[in-house]
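User: Can you predict the 3D structure of Gll0206 protein? Sequence below.
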Amino acid sequence: MSIECETGEVVHLQVDTLEKADLKGYNLHRAILSGVNLRAANLQKADLRGAIFDDASLAEADLSESRMMNSWLRNADLTGAILTKARPIATDFDGANLTKANLEGADIAWASFKAANLCDANMLCKRLEEANFEGAFYNLRTLWPRGFDPSKKGAILVNS
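Assistant: Sure. Here are the predicted structure tokens for Gll0206 protein:
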């Protein structure tokens, strides 16, 4: 894991797991956390701008009210994650598993969910029309705002 300090210095830490870690309000701006286990971690109100979480496990993690602009979560496991009122603006969720994730009130403008699993997710988000859902999977239990048609944005309804 790499973290850039306010001075611009990059600190490298050898960490494989931060499971259940309390990182509430931490500044992890531009942190590299690819493949790290952050299952059930508390990342409420954290600064995650530009952070890289590719292939990381964030299942059941609390990311509520976190700033996630321009972050990378490709192929990440976000099963049951809480992203309420988060700001994953222009964030890359391509191939991520967001099964049962709660994104209610999250601002997902310009975010990409290509081939992401959105089954049973709460997608009552802000600015859905500006997000990319090409090839994302959802089911009848996925919650969408009234009048929003995910299939018109390229999402695929699956039976599950």
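The radius of gyration is 15 Å. DSSP finds no helices and four strands in the chain.
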